[in-house]
């Protein structure tokens, strides 16, 4: 399944070292130029190139909270900053609405109708539909 995924979003905290290594391999490498100078009788300078990992496996594991590593198909990897829907003024309103609705649902769950209430409701519905109480008719 993982191999067939087109877009991979990685959040912080993965504890699987092999998985983190695989993600680091998917992110890829970058070529870094190195310059060195030597002084003295044989003074000179040298240039070399080295390929290093963009992200090491431990850096994948240590992604900050509210950030995600995004690997999308053929695109370059990005680290995206995330915002939660419960942040800010709109988030406080959303949480307040959630709390209110949960309280309403809890109240409704406590209101369990008795057998007499259910019978009275069924009789009222039957009368509303024009079915006599003594008829054996199915709704």
Task: Indicate the topology.
Blueprint: E1 7-10, H1 17-27, E2 29-38, E3 44-53, H2 57-61, E4 67-72, E5 78-81, H3 88-110, H4 115-129
Antiparallel strand pairs: 1-4, 2-3, 4-5
Keyphrases for this structure?
three-stranded antiparallel β-sheet, alpha+beta, 4 helices, two-stranded antiparallel sheet, 139 residues, 2 domains, 24% strand, 5 strands
Describe this structure in words.
The structure is a single chain. This protein is α+β, with helices and mostly antiparallel strands and 139 residues long. The protein folds into two domains: 2-81, no CATH class; 88-126. Helix content is 39%, strand content 24%. It is built from four helices and five strands. It has a three-stranded antiparallel beta sheet, with no helix packed on it. The protein has a two-stranded antiparallel sheet with strand order 2-3.
């Amino acid at each position: 399944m993982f191999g067939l995924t087109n877009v991979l979003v990685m959040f912080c905290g993965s504890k699987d070292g092999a998985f983190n290594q695989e993600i680091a391999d998917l992110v890829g490498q970058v070529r870094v130029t190195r310059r060195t100078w030597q002084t003295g009788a044989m003074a000179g300078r040298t240039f070399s190139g080295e390929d290093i990992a963009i992200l090491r496996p431990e850096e994948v594991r240590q992604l900050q909270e509210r950030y995600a590593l995004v690997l999308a198909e053929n695109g370059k990897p990005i680290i995206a900053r995330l915002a939660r829907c419960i942040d800010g003024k709109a988030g406080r309103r959303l949480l307040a609405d959630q709390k209110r609705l949960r309280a309403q649902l809890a109240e409704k769950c406590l209101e369990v109708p008795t057998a007499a209430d259910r019978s009275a409701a069924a009789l009222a519905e039957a009368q509303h539909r024009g079915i006599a109480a003594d008829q054996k008719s199915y709704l």
